[in-house]
Amino acid sequence: MKKFAIAVGLLVVAGAIWSYNVLRADQEPVSATPSPVEAGRQKLHDQLAQSAQREAEIEQQDWNSVTLLRALVAAHQERIQKLTGNSEAGEILAHDRDAVARLQKRVNDLVAQEAMLPPVGTGNQADAGSAANSGSPPAGAKPLASTSPQVDR
Question: Does pTM top 0.70 for this prediction?
Fold first, then answer.
């Protein structure tokens, strides 16, 4: 009987310690506030995400323009040069290197497409053909509502 009383007593003490820790955990946060370095790193990461979103929008607008894409490549390369050697800028450098590779591939594709186009003549057929192949509508043209042919029923 003594052994049983000791076992029950130990269980009661263990339960009291456990409940104290559980109740205290609800009242006190376990994690500490981030250090200034961590806060700065998180702020830079958020700024990189916003910058990447803004750059994606700009790329979509300039996707068919060789000169504008080359300007974007130059901007990324300039940032790479400025941040080279900064140990904290690894994520930004990786993003810029990926962007340069992607944009340079698109520039090369556009240059190849332009090289494959027939020379633009003075006739209407040549102008219509070059406008259809360039990926952009001719000047003054209204955008189509849909690209599928319409069938009257």
Answer: no
